[in-house]
Amino acid sequence: GNSVTQMEGPVTLSEEAFLTINCTYTATGYPSLFWYVQYPGEGLQLLLKATKADDKGSNKGFEATYRKETTSFHLEKGSVQVSDSAVYFCALVSSGSARQLTFGSGTQLTVLP
Amino acid sequence: GAVVSQHPSRVICKSGTSVKIECRSLDFQATTMFWYRQFPKQSLMLMATSNEGSKATYEQGVEKDKFLINHASLTLSTLTVTSAHPEDSSFYICSARRSLSGGYTDTQYFGPGTRLTVL
Questions:
Q1: Which residues from A are below 8 Å from B97, CB to CB?
Q2: pLDDT digits (tens, 9 = 90+) for A12-67
């Protein structure tokens, strides 16, 4: 079956530090990959996505590259801000899964001023 | 944009009562909507997939008679928690998948969630 493994948190960084949150996946076929962000007490917001190998998704300074050879989709940001504090979820949709999202466990990020 | 709303955002009810949660896609049509449940500090658990005009598909372990789902139009799905009990207290989140001519995209857009507390 499909699965997503995320780097366990919580992650605490100082403002302007470099961020990496690791994400690897197992899936049938050629999945689409997503990063969602959840701020406290809110639903999920799509942060970025990539639909095929070597695609790079980017938004708000965050980037992730779809690496089929390593089945990874690591999230990076060069300089985090306090406002980036949230829970980040890696997810996939696979052709064999009735197009349902499979989520990772989420990574709590706290950025300190 | 792709905006999904949920109503109410918070609800507190007594044990044994029923609660209805609405999920609306405000600026797009959604053939398919999904209902999730999230426990504190955990990931989202898919409860059911709702297709417009047909019966919902429930995930294993989710009681369809307890969690009634109706998807009567391309912009509205409702989840009714019947005879709610304290163990049903949770954060319920819906999502909608945009329908495009000739197919759909894989991207789901999420509502802001509904916090249900059953006393």
A1: 99
A2: 999 999 999 999 999 887 899 999 999 988 888 999 999 999 999 999 999 999 99
- Beta-strand pair A107-112/A101-103: unpaired
- Amino acid at residue number B89: S
Say how many Å lie between the first and final Cα of chain B, rounded: 37
Residue type, A65: T
Which of A45, A99, A104 shows the shortest C-beta gap to B110?
A45
d(CA A15, nearest CA chain B) in Å: 23
Rounded to whole angstroms, what are the CA distances from A5 to A60, A72, A89, B86?
Answer: 24, 9, 10, 31
- Contact criterion met (CB < 8 Å) for B106 and A104: no
Taking CB atoms and an 8 Å limit, are B93 and A89 in contact across chains? no
